[in-house]
Specification:
The protein has 476 residues and is mainly beta. Helix content is 8%, strand content 42%. The strands form six sheets. The chain has a six-stranded mixed sheet with strand order 1-13-21-20-15-18, with no helix packed on it. Helix 1 (3-14) runs antiparallel to helix 2. The longest helix is centred in the N-terminal third of the chain and has 12 residues, at 3-14. It binds CU-O-CU linkage and copper (II) ion.
Length: 476
Amino acid sequence: MKRRDFVSLVSAAMGTSVLWSCRKDMMNTEATSDLDLLAAKGGGGGAVTRYPLKFPSSIPSSGGVLESKLSTSNLGGELYSDVWAYNGEFPGPTISAKQGDTVSLQLKNSLNEETITHWHGMIVDHNNDGHPMHAFAPGTATKNYNFIINQRAALNWYHPHPHMLTGKQVYLGQAGAFIIYDNEDNGEGGLNLPFGAYEKPLILRDATLDRDNNLSYKPAAGGMFGKIPLVNGTRSPYLNVERAVYRFRILNGSNSRIFGLALSNNAAMRLIGNDGGLLPSSLDMNRIDMANGERTDVLIDFRSYPNNTRIMLRDLRAGWDLLEFRINSESVSGDLPVTNSSFTALTNPVNTRVFSFDAMSKINGLEYDMDRIDWTVPFGVTEKWIFKTNGNAPHPVHVHGASFQVVSRTGGRNQLFPWEAGWKDTVLLEDSETVEVLIRFDNPANLMPGMRNIYLMHCHKLEHEDMGMMANFEVV
Ligand code: C2O
Ligand code: CU
């Protein structure tokens, strides 16, 4: 019997706490460091030491190597944590490519357990999707990814997806940005969005550090909630900005935490995009909520502030300071474009499917089984998928292989939010909500000849995913 079969057997028989204790083999100390508590306070007391925001390096989308490996990372102020990181970097290197480009990357596994990398938001065939059945052990084997980018511009991301190990591997540091550009959204030109030094990725997440200041993965039944925020792997970060307009490409890379983003002076952020790229129209927002797995693309206009102004990007849910902007420049530059991206609404669904996210580990009453295909979807046909829950939400529902359009939310918050317009691949389902989406698998990658086109749908609370709130389906 394979270890994973054993673990699921035991956890089915004895409850999920056993699952987690089987996982704690690499965990070290119990105590939370004082640094955690200090840093979490934030709140402008003036006592918080802030560190320069880190930015990941870049690697080409073709010919590069990604190596999952053990490393250490400076979280700010020479505070080093053990991490599991792509190419030893926390967060992983940023990959960017244009629509039409070929991606060819080799994944090496230098961890001490199996892994596989999934490209979240990328529409690729089954063999390139990083399905858990393709997880491979450390050693000499590698996984070669090879696919053509056939989708619109967006901030996507990559992270491990081995069954029952995803939460731990992501938490310990494996995640990076994958930015796609196209003719409309291509840095310079196109829609005239800020680019180069004025376009910045922000990977948000939370973390708990143990007594030795190492990232400590100790999920509770409700998920993994860390005690401090990290932005691009930096604690208490600041960023020097000019009196200019910036584009921030924001990913919520937390295992379980939802953020409610706002600026400390309550200024508007111009929401221009989300998971699936630019929105049909941009909108000024004072607050933007993001579940784990979701992306937000905003413009922030610093032109009108006097030099030496400091503005904090905050999380209103936890009351956290996330990132301090320190404004300073000789001159004022940039503009604040209103973007209207082309968008075609899906209509007239042919099939309707209902998915109930049950307890913490089931979809329609079933825990994940790697060898079971739960439904088949005809290629090229618009379907309505209805997501509901009988409790234990939030469940950020994520689908591989296609983007979808969110058409309604009833119960609970009972509304759609501006950041849910356009194309999405992850949508937040709270308790007593029913969310309807329209989806169509119509990318040639979905019907790759000579293979079974198997994809995943799952809860992106990674602890729910690992406990089994995930399902296989096949496009035919
Ligand atoms: Cu971001 Cu199936 O995952
Ligand atoms: Cu869930």
